[in-house]
Fold:
Amino acid sequence: MDDSKDPLKNKDEFTLILRKRLKTELDYQSMTAADLARKTSVPKQVISDWLAGVMPRRLDHLKRVAHALSLTIDELCFGGGQNGQNGSVGVVGLERMIGAGEDRDGIVGRYEVVVQRIR
Structure:
């Protein structure tokens, strides 16, 4: 992989992905930074800083936020599982596609989708 495209080696790319992903998830889950701070015990200023593009300093904060948003740290920080580098849709993307949490024809809830190769 070209180092210039590796989010771990490009601070600006990393913070951009985190900022966009966090904003998307907060909007999707109808949460504010203050709501997330209360839910995770991560200071609101830290979450606001991430939304402004500041680099995270503590892994435990990332872990708590990812868990509260039902994401992995990889999904939160690098966009993995969300039409990201690996091209997969991921759990959150699938939930959006099938309308989990919304009342569409009486179908409400969470789903598990299993993809198997057919021979």
Summary: The domain at 3-82 is CATH 1.10.260.40 (434 Repressor (Amino-terminal Domain)).
